[in-house]
Protein backbone atom coordinates (compact mmCIF):
# COMPACT_ATOMS: atom_id res chain seq x y z
CA UNK A 1 0.00 0.00 0.00
CA UNK A 2 1.67 3.21 -1.17
CA UNK A 3 0.71 6.53 0.45
CA UNK A 4 -0.66 7.64 -2.96
CA UNK A 5 -2.89 4.58 -3.21
CA UNK A 6 -4.09 5.14 0.35
CA UNK A 7 -4.92 8.80 -0.43
CA UNK A 8 -6.84 7.67 -3.52
CA UNK A 9 -8.89 5.18 -1.50
CA UNK A 10 -9.73 7.94 0.99
CA UNK A 11 -10.65 10.40 -1.76
CA UNK A 12 -13.13 7.90 -3.18
CA UNK A 13 -14.50 6.96 0.22
CA UNK A 14 -14.98 10.65 1.06
CA UNK A 15 -17.49 10.81 -1.80
CA UNK A 16 -19.45 7.65 -1.09
CA UNK A 17 -23.20 8.28 -0.74
CA UNK A 18 -24.77 5.90 1.78
CA UNK A 19 -28.24 7.21 0.92
CA UNK A 20 -28.14 6.57 -2.83
CA UNK A 21 -28.50 3.07 -4.21
CA UNK A 22 -29.84 0.76 -6.89
CA UNK A 23 -31.96 -2.35 -6.57
CA UNK A 24 -31.64 -4.78 -9.48
CA UNK A 25 -34.64 -7.06 -9.74
CA UNK A 26 -33.55 -10.25 -11.47
CA UNK A 27 -31.06 -8.48 -13.71
CA UNK A 28 -29.40 -11.73 -14.57
CA UNK A 29 -26.96 -11.04 -17.39
CA UNK A 30 -23.49 -10.64 -15.88
CA UNK A 31 -22.53 -7.86 -18.31
CA UNK A 32 -25.59 -5.78 -17.31
CA UNK A 33 -25.07 -6.33 -13.61
CA UNK A 34 -21.41 -5.44 -13.99
CA UNK A 35 -22.11 -2.32 -16.04
CA UNK A 36 -24.64 -1.11 -13.44
CA UNK A 37 -22.13 -1.66 -10.62
CA UNK A 38 -19.52 0.25 -12.59
CA UNK A 39 -21.88 3.21 -12.90
CA UNK A 40 -22.83 2.87 -9.24
CA UNK A 41 -19.15 3.16 -8.33
CA UNK A 42 -18.77 6.23 -10.55
CA UNK A 43 -21.60 8.10 -8.83
CA UNK A 44 -20.53 7.07 -5.33
CA UNK A 45 -23.04 4.37 -4.39
CA UNK A 46 -21.78 2.68 -1.23
CA UNK A 47 -23.91 -0.46 -1.35
CA UNK A 48 -26.05 -1.81 -4.21
CA UNK A 49 -28.86 -4.35 -3.91
CA UNK A 50 -30.05 -7.25 -6.02
CA UNK A 51 -32.99 -9.59 -5.86
CA UNK A 52 -31.89 -13.01 -6.85
CA UNK A 53 -34.46 -15.74 -6.25
CA UNK A 54 -31.89 -18.49 -6.57
CA UNK A 55 -30.03 -16.90 -3.65
CA UNK A 56 -26.73 -17.40 -5.47
CA UNK A 57 -24.02 -14.81 -5.67
CA UNK A 58 -24.36 -12.95 -8.98
CA UNK A 59 -21.51 -13.42 -11.39
CA UNK A 60 -19.55 -10.54 -12.82
CA UNK A 61 -18.23 -9.80 -16.25
CA UNK A 62 -15.10 -7.86 -17.21
CA UNK A 63 -17.36 -4.86 -18.08
CA UNK A 64 -17.37 -4.23 -14.31
CA UNK A 65 -13.83 -2.82 -14.46
CA UNK A 66 -13.40 -4.42 -11.01
CA UNK A 67 -16.15 -2.25 -9.49
CA UNK A 68 -17.53 -5.20 -7.52
CA UNK A 69 -14.50 -4.68 -5.25
CA UNK A 70 -15.61 -1.14 -4.40
CA UNK A 71 -19.40 -1.33 -4.28
CA UNK A 72 -20.86 -3.75 -1.76
CA UNK A 73 -23.67 -5.87 -3.16
CA UNK A 74 -26.42 -7.12 -0.88
CA UNK A 75 -28.50 -9.95 -2.31
CA UNK A 76 -32.12 -10.34 -1.16
CA UNK A 77 -34.24 -13.48 -1.66
CA UNK A 78 -37.28 -11.61 -3.01
CA UNK A 79 -38.62 -8.12 -3.70
CA UNK A 80 -40.61 -8.00 -0.48
CA UNK A 81 -37.45 -8.51 1.59
CA UNK A 82 -35.51 -6.01 -0.51
CA UNK A 83 -38.15 -3.29 -0.28
CA UNK A 84 -38.62 -3.87 3.44
CA UNK A 85 -34.87 -3.54 3.95
CA UNK A 86 -34.63 -0.31 1.93
CA UNK A 87 -37.75 1.33 3.33
CA UNK A 88 -36.68 0.40 6.85
CA UNK A 89 -33.54 2.44 6.20
CA UNK A 90 -35.50 5.46 5.03
CA UNK A 91 -35.08 5.07 1.27
CA UNK A 92 -37.74 6.21 -1.17
CA UNK A 93 -37.84 3.58 -3.89
CA UNK A 94 -38.24 4.79 -7.49
CA UNK A 95 -39.08 2.05 -9.96
CA UNK A 96 -37.62 2.72 -13.40
CA UNK A 97 -40.75 1.44 -15.03
CA UNK A 98 -42.42 2.09 -18.35
CA UNK A 99 -45.88 2.55 -16.87
CA UNK A 100 -48.79 4.95 -17.26
CA UNK A 101 -48.22 6.46 -13.82
CA UNK A 102 -44.48 7.06 -14.33
CA UNK A 103 -43.13 10.61 -14.02
CA UNK A 104 -40.14 12.00 -15.89
CA UNK A 105 -37.02 10.81 -13.99
CA UNK A 106 -35.75 14.42 -13.78
CA UNK A 107 -38.72 15.45 -11.63
CA UNK A 108 -37.44 13.47 -8.64
CA UNK A 109 -35.37 14.94 -5.81
CA UNK A 110 -32.44 12.49 -5.57
CA UNK A 111 -30.71 14.49 -2.84
CA UNK A 112 -33.05 12.68 -0.45
CA UNK A 113 -32.40 8.98 0.36
CA UNK A 114 -33.17 7.32 -2.97
CA UNK A 115 -33.13 3.80 -4.36
CA UNK A 116 -33.57 3.21 -8.08
CA UNK A 117 -35.29 -0.08 -8.83
CA UNK A 118 -34.38 -1.63 -12.20
CA UNK A 119 -36.24 -4.45 -13.83
CA UNK A 120 -35.26 -7.63 -15.57
CA UNK A 121 -33.96 -7.40 -19.14
CA UNK A 122 -36.95 -9.14 -20.67
CA UNK A 123 -39.87 -8.57 -18.34
CA UNK A 124 -39.09 -5.25 -16.70
CA UNK A 125 -40.07 -4.41 -13.11
CA UNK A 126 -42.47 -7.04 -11.74
CA UNK A 127 -46.03 -5.97 -10.83
CA UNK A 128 -45.30 -6.80 -7.17
CA UNK A 129 -42.16 -4.65 -7.08
CA UNK A 130 -43.97 -1.77 -8.82
CA UNK A 131 -46.77 -2.03 -6.28
CA UNK A 132 -44.30 -1.82 -3.38
CA UNK A 133 -42.22 1.02 -4.87
CA UNK A 134 -43.07 4.61 -3.93
CA UNK A 135 -43.21 5.97 -7.49
CA UNK A 136 -42.44 5.04 -11.08
CA UNK A 137 -39.97 7.07 -13.12
CA UNK A 138 -39.46 6.99 -16.85
CA UNK A 139 -36.78 8.18 -19.23
CA UNK A 140 -38.79 9.66 -22.10
CA UNK A 141 -38.26 7.72 -25.32
CA UNK A 142 -38.64 9.56 -28.64
CA UNK A 143 -37.57 6.79 -31.00
CA UNK A 144 -38.94 3.58 -32.43
CA UNK A 145 -37.62 1.31 -29.69
CA UNK A 146 -39.65 1.24 -26.46
CA UNK A 147 -36.94 0.83 -23.85
CA UNK A 148 -33.24 1.26 -23.12
CA UNK A 149 -30.83 -1.44 -22.08
CA UNK A 150 -31.16 -1.75 -18.30
CA UNK A 151 -27.58 -0.63 -17.62
CA UNK A 152 -28.05 2.43 -19.83
CA UNK A 153 -31.28 3.34 -18.00
CA UNK A 154 -29.43 2.96 -14.69
CA UNK A 155 -26.67 5.28 -15.88
CA UNK A 156 -29.06 7.96 -17.10
CA UNK A 157 -30.92 8.08 -13.78
CA UNK A 158 -27.87 7.72 -11.54
CA UNK A 159 -26.04 10.54 -13.29
CA UNK A 160 -29.08 12.78 -12.80
CA UNK A 161 -28.79 11.89 -9.10
CA UNK A 162 -25.07 12.70 -9.20
CA UNK A 163 -25.78 16.05 -10.86
CA UNK A 164 -28.34 17.00 -8.21
CA UNK A 165 -26.09 15.83 -5.38
CA UNK A 166 -23.10 17.75 -6.73
CA UNK A 167 -25.20 20.93 -6.84
CA UNK A 168 -26.37 20.27 -3.28
CA UNK A 169 -22.78 19.82 -2.02
CA UNK A 170 -23.26 16.19 -1.03
CA UNK A 171 -19.86 15.17 -2.43
CA UNK A 172 -18.04 17.94 -0.61
CA UNK A 173 -17.65 16.16 2.72
CA UNK A 174 -17.60 12.52 3.88
CA UNK A 175 -21.10 11.09 4.32
CA UNK A 176 -20.30 7.70 5.87
CA UNK A 177 -20.45 7.39 9.64
CA UNK A 178 -16.93 7.20 11.15
CA UNK A 179 -17.13 3.49 12.04
CA UNK A 180 -18.34 2.46 8.56
CA UNK A 181 -15.67 4.67 7.02
CA UNK A 182 -12.90 3.12 9.13
CA UNK A 183 -14.08 -0.44 8.48
CA UNK A 184 -14.47 0.10 4.75
CA UNK A 185 -11.11 1.78 4.42
CA UNK A 186 -9.44 -1.23 6.03
CA UNK A 187 -11.32 -3.66 3.75
CA UNK A 188 -10.38 -1.67 0.65
CA UNK A 189 -6.76 -1.26 1.67
CA UNK A 190 -6.23 -4.79 2.99
CA UNK A 191 -8.90 -7.11 1.52
CA UNK A 192 -7.05 -10.37 2.28
CA UNK A 193 -6.22 -9.42 5.85
CA UNK A 194 -9.79 -8.17 6.37
CA UNK A 195 -11.22 -11.50 5.16
CA UNK A 196 -8.99 -13.44 7.58
CA UNK A 197 -9.90 -11.19 10.52
CA UNK A 198 -13.61 -11.45 9.69
CA UNK A 199 -13.41 -15.25 9.61
CA UNK A 200 -11.70 -15.20 13.00
CA UNK A 201 -14.23 -12.72 14.40
CA UNK A 202 -11.43 -10.24 15.21
CA UNK A 203 -11.63 -6.44 14.91
CA UNK A 204 -9.66 -4.57 12.27
CA UNK A 205 -6.51 -2.84 13.56
CA UNK A 206 -6.13 0.92 13.09
CA UNK A 207 -4.14 2.41 10.20
CA UNK A 208 -1.62 5.19 10.47
CA UNK A 209 -1.58 8.43 8.42
CA UNK A 210 -0.01 6.67 5.45
CA UNK A 211 -2.24 3.62 5.58
CA UNK A 212 0.12 1.23 7.34
CA UNK A 213 -1.35 -1.25 9.79
CA UNK A 214 -0.52 -0.06 13.30
C1 LIG B 1 -35.00 -3.62 -21.40
S1 LIG B 1 -35.92 -2.89 -20.15
C2 LIG B 1 -37.32 -3.97 -19.97
C3 LIG B 1 -38.35 -3.77 -20.99
C4 LIG B 1 -39.61 -4.50 -20.64
N1 LIG B 1 -40.16 -5.07 -21.84
C5 LIG B 1 -40.61 -3.55 -19.97
O1 LIG B 1 -41.69 -3.37 -20.51
O2 LIG B 1 -40.31 -3.00 -18.90
C6 LIG B 1 -35.08 -3.31 -18.66
C7 LIG B 1 -35.21 -2.30 -17.55
O3 LIG B 1 -34.53 -1.09 -17.90
C8 LIG B 1 -35.18 0.03 -17.32
N2 LIG B 1 -35.57 0.93 -18.41
C9 LIG B 1 -35.29 0.77 -19.72
N3 LIG B 1 -35.75 1.80 -20.44
C10 LIG B 1 -36.34 2.64 -19.56
C11 LIG B 1 -36.98 3.91 -19.68
N4 LIG B 1 -37.12 4.52 -20.86
N5 LIG B 1 -37.46 4.50 -18.58
C12 LIG B 1 -37.31 3.90 -17.36
N6 LIG B 1 -36.70 2.72 -17.19
C13 LIG B 1 -36.22 2.10 -18.27
C14 LIG B 1 -36.36 -0.51 -16.55
O4 LIG B 1 -36.02 -0.69 -15.20
C15 LIG B 1 -36.62 -1.84 -17.21
O5 LIG B 1 -37.26 -2.72 -16.35
UniProtKB/TrEMBL annotation:
InterPro entries assigned:
Alpha/beta_knot_MTases, rRNA_MeTrfase_SpoU_C, SpoU_MeTrfase, TrmH, tRNA_m1G_MTases_N
The cross-references to HAMAP family, in alphabetical order and at most eight, read: tRNA_methyltr_TrmH
Q: Give start and end of each tRNA/rRNA methyltransferase SpoU type domain.
A: 20-159
Q: Which GO BP terms apply?
A: tRNA guanine ribose methylation
Amino-acid positions noted as binding S-adenosyl-L-methionine in the UniProt annotation, renumbered to this chain = 119-123, 139, 148
What is this protein's function?
Catalyzes the 2'-O methylation of guanosine at position 18 in tRNA.
Q: Domain named RNA methyltransferase SpoU/TrmH type C-terminal: which ranges? A: 164-214
| Originating gene | trmH
**Native organism:** Oceanithermus profundus (strain DSM 14977 / NBRC 100410 / VKM B-2274 / 506)
* Protein family: Belongs to the class IV-like SAM-binding methyltransferase superfamily. RNA methyltransferase TrmH family.
The major lineage groups are: Bacteria, Thermotogati, Deinococcota, Deinococci, Thermales
Q: What is this protein called?
A: tRNA (guanosine(18)-2'-O)-methyltransferase
Catalytic function, reaction form = guanosine(18) in tRNA + S-adenosyl-L-methionine = 2'-O-methylguanosine(18) in tRNA + S-adenosyl-L-homocysteine + H(+)
List the PANTHER family: RRNA METHYLASE-LIKE, TRNA_RRNA METHYLTRANSFERASE SPOU TYPE DOMAIN-CONTAINING PROTEIN
Could you say which enzyme class this protein belongs to? Answer: transferase
Q: Name one GO molecular function term.
A: tRNA binding
| Record has Transmembrane helix as a keyword | no
Pfam families per UniProt: SpoU_methylas_C, SpoU_methylase
Protein keywords: Methyltransferase, RNA-binding, S-adenosyl-L-methionine, Transferase, tRNA processing, tRNA-binding
Q: What is its EC number?
A: 2.1.1.34
Amino acid sequence: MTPERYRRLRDVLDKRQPDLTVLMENVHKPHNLSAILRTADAVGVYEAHAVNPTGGVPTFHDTSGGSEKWVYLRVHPNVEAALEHLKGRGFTVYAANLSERAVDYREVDYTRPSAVLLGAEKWGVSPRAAELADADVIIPMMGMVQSLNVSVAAAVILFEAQCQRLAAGLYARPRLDPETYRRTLFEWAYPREAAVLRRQGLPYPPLDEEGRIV
